Amino acid sequence: MVNITGKVLRILPLREVEIADSTKKVVDLIIADAFDYRRVSLWAEKAELVLRGDIKVGDMLRIENAHLPTGNNKGGAKRANAGRYTQINRIALNIAALSHAPPLNLTVLAVARPEGGQVCIAGIDENGEWIRPQGVYENDVFCSESQNFKNLGITKIYVDEWRGRCPRHEDRFFVYGEGVERELNEEEKREFLERNMDDSVDAVFKGDRSLGLIKPRILHVYEERVRKRTGPKSHEVYIRLNFRDSSGRIYRRWSCRCDAFYQIWNELKKRHRWTYGWRMLRYLEKNDTYLAIGLTYSDYGADRLEYGAYPMIVGVHVVRKV
Q1: Which CATH fold topology does 104-183 show?
Q2: Counting CB atoms within 10 angstroms of each CB, which of 31, 193, 300, 308 has the fewest?
Q3: What residues have CB less than 8 Å from 222, skipping those under 6 apart?
Q4: What are 260-281's pLDDT values in tens digits?
């Protein structure tokens, strides 16, 4: 048993867990004191406290008699379960959550389209290291008070070791973000992109990284309707790019997942119904275009995958030529 006192920083989406032929509702809270955090899973009737709105982000809570996970659980030190005999009370206490924990200043290079409610975020910290926060949901990107992540904006985030399946070199568990502190101006954008640019696709993926930044020549940009196996829509539109990197190698049909680029594409499509593809290619050619590229997980069991996984474009950054 463990007692926990802290501030609710995040409420993760509801999930349902099958146990002994029954389905249990579970809602996870990220709760922190001044030094550290816990991920507390509220089960069954305790989850209803969140669903009814009795527990909200920003509440100060005292949780008594929470259970620690059993078995070989790598994340057990930071996890706890609140069940039937757990007591949860609001308290009148001012806690400066994570005020003594080390944050990262992340310059964001990727905010991807949501997939199953989650959002792929990636960027470079103040030490020049690529970071991919894991467990970021749609309501983490846009919260009621501020925007947490924006391309070429700097966000202060708190992260921890990623204890999920198949960890990649850059993966970290996303604990909390304090919103976009500022956006880079045009001069800062160019300097940052040039300073962190990789020589080629091979230079990124044949090392130990699954994220990188290249400045290719865009050859073709187009959309493709892909049949979906599940969901309300039978098809989904994907933007794909063909490009040549600085090594001279041509890459074809790479899927683009950059959310901001889709917004620009759709606006252009509304205004120029018949010529939007040509206009987008011309726009990318007239300016300096940088692509943040990434690899998905590599445990699909499929043969002949490029670089052992599925490469894609996770961020598109366009700056005016000088």
Answers
A1: OB fold (Dihydrolipoamide Acetyltransferase, E2P) (2.40.50)
A2: 300
A3: 239, 240, 277
A4: 999 999 999 999 999 999 999 9
